[in-house]
Amino acid sequence: MSPILGIWASAQTASKLSAYDSIATVTVGAGGTSTVSFTSIPQTYTHLQIRGIARGTVAGTDENIYMQFNGVGGTSYSWHRILANGSSVSSGNNPSQPSGVITVVSASGSTANVFGATVVDILDYANTSKNKTVRGLGGSDQNGSGYACFQSFAFNNTAAVTSIDITSSANWAQYTQFALYGIKG
Amino acid sequence: MPATYEPIATNTLGSAAATLTFNSIPSTYTDLILICSMTGNTTSIDTRVVFNSDTGSNYSATRLMGDGTSATSNRSTNRAFIDLNYTGGVSSTAPTTSILNIMNYSNSTTYKTTLLRGNELGGTYQGTEAIVGLWRNTAAITSMTITASNDNFKSGSTFTLYGIKAA
Chain-wide mean pLDDT for chain A? Predict the structure, then answer.
């Protein structure tokens, strides 16, 4: 291949592969943390995706992942979910909440080294004309207990999402990790 | 910005086979995604994956299924594999599609959790499901072996492994 064609081919490859970009990653260190935050989120993508593994420090074997956008609390969030516990399926919802709930992961009473996981899509996050919808798949299997979960929540606010706070009922344990990606349209 | 979502390897079966393996998986990504479009060769099959050739009773799963009539859940404990479909679901006529997220596969500190979305038509089971899997091992995943339980995969079944790289 000539040098010119080589440069052209490289550019084409880079262009194709940059539709899904890593924006930032947070890995919780020793001692844990109450909040994982992504700030100054660029507005140059169409959708965001958060992928992560998580374990809470709260007592028991299950913990929720809570998300808040732009520091807005109040009653701005509503959520729905389908939850499977290994023997039955339930559905729940909760309107007018101070944060969105996106899945169930493991907690301090879970078997050591077990971390739940989630993949969360935040759709059309930079749009300033409509409220934001978020959906997630996640759960935590614990070899005899645990959940599989489909969940969605609405952020009843038309502002573009510029920051995300991810919290639990207590702290996130060491090695919890959330990675934020941008997906171009 | 560097590429973050990359194909690692693809295997399109040129002839019927019961097993295929992705070896020497690079540790440079954060998550893996395995996308399967698979069909039983002559009859309905079940499909499975093991990591690092571990066939011990170190896997478990919690499932959420919908078959058009009801939503149900069940689980398996101390199993020798993680499912790539729900029991009896991969038919010999309609391809089953499964997408398996293998989260944080290269760390050597945590057990490995997987998230699967699958759907089946034409087999003993027909429906859609989400399956959360667990491999109780802290080792980094360097290989995965995919098998059909009671027949071969049909020629033309495809398996593609992607890597997602976090900043």
Answer: 92
| A60 found inside a domain | yes
Given a contact cutoff of 8 angstroms between Cβ atoms, the answer to whether B78 and A143 are in contact is yes
Is the model's pTM score more than 0.90?
A: yes
CATH of residue B96's domain is 2.60.120
Domain that holds residue B104: 5-160
Smallest CA–CA distance, residue B102 to chain A, in Å, is 9
Q: Count contacts between A and B (CB, < 8 Å).
A: 146
Residue A9 lies in a domain: no
- CB atoms < 10 A from the CB of A74, how many? 11
Round to whole Å and give the CA distance between B36 and A108: 35
Q: Do A139 and B134 touch (CB under 8 A)?
A: no
Instruction: Please count the structural domains in chain B.
Output: 1
d(CA B69, CA B157): 29
Reported ipTM: the value is 0.95
pLDDT over 70 (residue B5): yes
pLDDT exceeds 80 at position A20: yes
User: With contacts defined as CB-CB under 8 Å, which chain A residues touch B115?
Assistant: 117-119, 137-139
The total number of structural domains in chain A stands at 1
How far is Cα A17 from Cα A12, in angstroms, rounded to an integer? Answer: 9
pLDDT digits (tens, 9 = 90+) for B68-109: 999 999 999 999 999 999 888 899 999 999 999 999 999 999
Beta-carbon separation of A141 and B165 below 8 A:
no
User: Residue A169: which CATH number?
Assistant: 2.60.120
Strand runs labelled E in chain B: 5-12, 19-22, 31-38, 47-51, 59-66, 71-79, 82-83, 96-102, 112-120, 127-135, 144-148, 158-164
**Residue for token pair 């023997």:** A87
Percent of chain A's residues with pLDDT above 90 = 90
